[in-house]
Amino acid sequence: MYRCEYFAIHELVPPKVFQEWGEKAWELLDERLLITLDRLRRRYGPMTVNNYYWGKEREWSGLRTKDSPFYSRYSQHTFGRAADCLFAERAAEEVRQDILSHSTDPDFEMIGSVELNVSWLHFDVRNCHRIKTYQP
Ligand SMILES: [Zn+2]
């Protein structure tokens, strides 16, 4: 079982899941997502996924359930395979271009897809011809 070195579980699941599942909620997330989150954190420095735990607004940037206004039945977020990330010291576009131009780097070996033209980094670990890109 993999638990992130740099992230607490509340940073990766919404409040209700954290309340109901606590630490067991690690089981709801794909380990490839978790391993890659730690790799991105090591490479790019401090990052935010959810931050509601500290009284801020982001609560749907990791796992999404039907309660989410952003819920979509087949979103990778629904399956615990996606995260939307903000970086303290890097622009999302800079990170996205680094990933796409070094797609064979071991840090990125589990990334299936990244979303283009958004102000955050969406990556997921879907099963696809990688690294796939798509528009919002
Ligand atoms: Zn996303």
Question: How would you explain this protein's 3D organization?
Answer:
There is one protein chain. With about 140 residues, this protein is α+β, with helices and mostly antiparallel strands. It has one domain: Muramoyl-pentapeptide Carboxypeptidase, domain 2 (2-Layer Sandwich), CATH 3.30.1380. The chain has helices spanning about 15-20, 30-45, 90-100, and strands at about 45-50, 80-85, 115, 120-125, 130-135. The protein has a five-stranded mixed sheet. A hairpin with a 5-residue loop joins strand 3 (about 115) and strand 4 (about 120-125). The longest helix is centred in the first third of the chain and has 14 residues, at about 30-45. It is globular and about 40 Å long. The termini are far apart. The mean pLDDT is about 100. Bound molecules: zinc ion (ZN). Zinc ion binds near residues 77, 82, 84 and 122.
Question: Could you write a compact summary of the structure shown?
Answer:
The protein is an alpha+beta fold.
**What is the H/E order?**
HHEEHEEE
Largest sheet, spatial ordering of strands:
1-2-4-3-5
Biggest beta-sheet profile: 5 strands, mixed
Distance between the termini: 32 Å
**So what's the CATH class?**
Alpha Beta
- What's the alpha carbon Rg, rounded to whole Å? 14 Å
CATH architecture assignment: 2-Layer Sandwich
